[in-house]
Amino acid sequence: MATLLSARRAGWRDYLELTKPKVVVLMLITSLAGMFLATRAGVSWSVLLFGNLGIALCAGSAAVVNHVVDRRIDALMARTHKRPLAQGRVEPLPALLFALALALLGMALLLVFTNPLTAWLTLASLLGYAVLYTGFLKRATPQNIVIGGLAGAAPPLLGWVAVSGHVSAEPLLLVLIIFAWTPPHFWALAIHRKEEYAKADIPMLPVTHGERYTKLHILLYSLILLAVSLLPFAIHMSGLLYLACALVLGLRFLQWAWVLYRGSQPHAAIGTFKYSIGYLFALFIALLVDHYLLLNL
Fold first, then answer.
1. Residue 76 pLDDT
2. pLDDT for 88-138, tens place per residue?
3. 13: buried, middle or exposed (CB in 10 Å: 19+, 13-18, 0-12)?
4. Which parts of the chain register pLDDT below 50?
5. Helices (DSSP H) in the chain: which residue ranges?
6. What does 84-107 look like in DSSP terms, one character per residue?
7. How far apart are CA 279 and CA 97, in angstroms?
8. Is 112 within 8 Å of 25 (Cβ atoms)?
9. What burial class does residue 45 get, using C-beta atoms within 10 Å of its C-beta: 0-12 exposed, 13-18 middle, 19+ buried?
10. How far is it, in rounded angstroms, from Cα 234 to Cα 7?
11. What is the pLDDT of residue 1?
């Protein structure tokens, strides 16, 4: 009876929330960048529409699995306690069936409208996040976000391969940028929510090694990110416009990391986290603008 009542309370907004739409939108921006950077001839409408839809559906499927697996700890954390599964508005079995439907539809779209390599790489990314990171790494090691971050860094590679049909150095460099971005982005949030992660018994770096140690690593990864973000210019993948944007954005990120390390502002952790989201969005937009500006010169 409780299951039936919960199912009746569930609406389409609850199922949409399970897919983490804001995260998926940020992933699609990097996927779109991968697509447009892969070609000088333009992207066909079918690949543009159905390729990104397939990637989005698979990303949403992985997010739903994350909600199912983390429903107990979500209920303990202020940031996540209102999620549909944590509050019982959606039951685990319907959620898993929803995730399976999203994954199957996403894979079908990718196989039909892009190419098999894109589909299998997307599936590997889905499994990496939903199974490896959510099911194991998140609870096993404070380096969880570093190792598991590779799955979340895949969208620009997926977009590139959807258009080109092959893997090359350029999309792997885009993956490397997101891979280097993920630890300072997520560890800043982990510092802000340290007590909640400790309560939920999740071994995030600030919980296991302390805030000072985590802040130092955020600073170090921010330096790595700045260096990695300049590589597209170094390999002639982008031009001076991107170089200028990458320097400005990266130095600002480094400034936030330094302020956080020094402890000179009370809310520097959440400020760093919020800036990191805008940073990634702006960096990939700069790549796109620079790419098409070069085409018209």
1. 84
2. 999 999 999 999 999 999 999 999 999 999 999 999 999 999 988 888 888
3. exposed
4. 1-7
5. 2-9, 12-18, 21-37, 45-46, 52-69, 71-74, 92-113, 116-127, 138-140, 144-152, 155-164, 169-192, 194-199, 205-209, 211-229, 231-234, 240-262, 268-295
6. TTTTTSS-HHHHHHHHHHHHHHHH
7. 35
8. no
9. exposed
10. 54
11. 39
The residue type found at 218 is I
What is the number of residues in the chain? Answer: 297
Tokens representing 218 are 């955020």
Retrieve residue 190's tokens: 């982990």
Cα separation, 281 vs 29, whole angstroms: 7
Determine the residue type at 122: T
Tokens 């936030």 sit on residue? 256
Angle ∠(82,87,88) on CA atoms, nearest 5:
150
Pull the structure tokens for residue 257: 């990391």
